Amino acid sequence: MSWISNTFSSSIGRKVIVAITGLFLCSFLVVHLIGNFQLFKDDGGAAFNIYSHFMGTNPVIRTVEWGLLLGFVFHIYESYTLAVRNRAARSVAYVDSRPSQNSPWYSRSMALLGTIILLFLLVHMYNFFYRARFGDLDPDINNNADLYTLVYSSFKQWWYVLLYVAAQVALCYHLIHGFRSGFQTLGLNHRKYTPLVRIIGYAFAIIVCAGFAAMPLYFFFFKPELAH
Amino acid sequence: MAGSNPNAKPMNLTLKVWRQKNRNAEGQIVEYQVKDISPEMSFLEMLDVLNEDLLHKGEEPVAFDHDCREGICGSCNLFINGRAHGPEKGTTTCQLHMRKFSDGDTITIEPWRANAFPVNRDLSVDRSAFDRIIQAGGYVSVNTGGAPDGNEIPIPKPVADRAFEAATCIACGACVAACKNASAMLFVSAKISQLALLPQGQVERKTRVENMIAQMDKEGFGACTNIGQCAAECPVGISLENIALMNREFISAKATSNNLA
C-alpha cells in the first residue's frame, strides 16, 4: 500500500490533511461556542454545569472526543512538517524583501499564529479540561461538578483574561486565512463561490472569536460576585 | 534617441547588486553608481550601462539572465527592491522601465532565492529544476507525421481560452521567488491545467500530475500555503484557480490511477 503513504507524504497530500482537519476543527469551534453560551445564563452556573457534565459523561461525546484529538494531532503535525519543509526551501534569505506589498501579514504567519493558539490550548486544557475530567471539583446544587465556579474565578484574573483575548485575536487571523485556504487546497475554487467562501470565512472568524472573547470579558467586567 | 521624450530627465542611481563568483562562492552585496540613465531605458538596458562602465574600468561585468527582452521568453529574473520583477505589477524585468524610479534612488538587485534555483553567478540562477518537472510529464505524446487537420479535434472556445490562460505561463520563476515557501505550485499548476483542459492531454492526464508533483517535491520546492504572493507577482497573471485545479487533478489521480507506487 505504498501509494497511500506516498500520497500523504507528498506536498499536496499533507496540505489536504491540514485542510480537512482544519475545516473539521472549525466545526468543533461552532459546537464549543454554542455550548459555552450557557456561561451567560444568570443561574449561578447550574445550566453550564449540566452541560459540562453531559459533555464529560455522554458516551457519544466521549467517542467523538477521540476524533477531535486526532484532528488536532494531525493538523498540528502536518502543518509543522510542512512549515519545516517550506522554511528549508530557501536557506539564503533576501537582503531586501517586501512581502507586505503582495500579501497580508497573517497569511504569511499561519505557523506563528498556530503556535500561539497551541500554547493557549495547553493552558486552556490544563485549567479547564484536565481539572474537570481528572480533578476534584466541588459539586454544585444539582450535584454536578462545579466547573462554573472555576471558570468564574479564572476569568476574574486580569492576566488570564488578557491571555484569552490575545489567543482569540490570533485565532481570528488564523481562521480568516485558514477557512478560505482549506477550500482552495481541496480544489474547491470556483469563480462563483470563492468570493462567497472568502466572505463567509471573514464572518466566521470574527463571529466565533468575538463570541469566545466575550466570555472572559463578560466575567471580568460585568459579572458580580457569586451568590453562594 | 528617435521618438524619445524630450522632457525625460536623466537619472543618477545607486545600485546594490548581489555579486557571487560561482555556485560555491560566498556572495555579497556590492554598491555601484550609475549616471545619466534615461527614464525610457528598460531595467536591463540600465544594467547594460552598468556593465559597460565596469568593462571600461577593467572589472567583471554583472551576470544576469535575459533573452528576448520583449516580455515573452521568461529568461529575465531579477528580485528588485524586495519584489520579483520589481515594483510594477504584471511585467517582467525587461519590461520594467526606469521611469518607475526616481533620480537619486537606491535600488537593490538580487537573484531569485530558492534552494531549487542555485545561483550560477551574480544574478543568474539555474532554473533547470523547472525543466526536469516538465520532463516528468508536462508534455503530450503524439505520433509525428503530417500536420493534423485544424478542426479534427473539436475544442469548445471557452475551454480553449481557459487552457490558453494557463499556457501563457513563461516559466520565469517569479512565483517561486516571491513565495515565502519558495513553492513552485503556480508554475506546475499552470502546466498541468493547460494539458488537463485539452482533449490532447487526456491520455496522460493521471500519470502527468502524479509524476510532475513527485518531481516538484524532489527538487526541494516548498509547499503552497495559499498566500497568493505568486499570483500577485506573476508577470502574465496566472491565477490561483490553477492551483485548485491541480489539487483536484492530484487527488483524483491518486484515488483512481492504476499506479501502485
TrEMBL record, chain A:
<dbReference type="InterPro" id="IPR034804">
    <property type="entry name" value="SQR/QFR_C/D"/>
</dbReference>
<feature type="transmembrane region" description="Helical">
    <location>
        <begin position="196"/>
        <end position="221"/>
    </location>
</feature>
<feature type="transmembrane region" description="Helical">
    <location>
        <begin position="105"/>
        <end position="129"/>
    </location>
</feature>
<protein>
    <submittedName>
        <fullName>Succinate dehydrogenase</fullName>
    </submittedName>
</protein>
<keyword id="KW-0812">Transmembrane</keyword>
<keyword id="KW-1133">Transmembrane helix</keyword>
<dbReference type="GO" id="GO:0016020">
    <property type="term" value="C:membrane"/>
</dbReference>
<feature type="transmembrane region" description="Helical">
    <location>
        <begin position="158"/>
        <end position="176"/>
    </location>
</feature>
<feature type="transmembrane region" description="Helical">
    <location>
        <begin position="66"/>
        <end position="84"/>
    </location>
</feature>
<dbReference type="InterPro" id="IPR011138">
    <property type="entry name" value="Cytochrome_b-558"/>
</dbReference>
<feature type="transmembrane region" description="Helical">
    <location>
        <begin position="12"/>
        <end position="34"/>
    </location>
</feature>
<keyword id="KW-0472">Membrane</keyword>
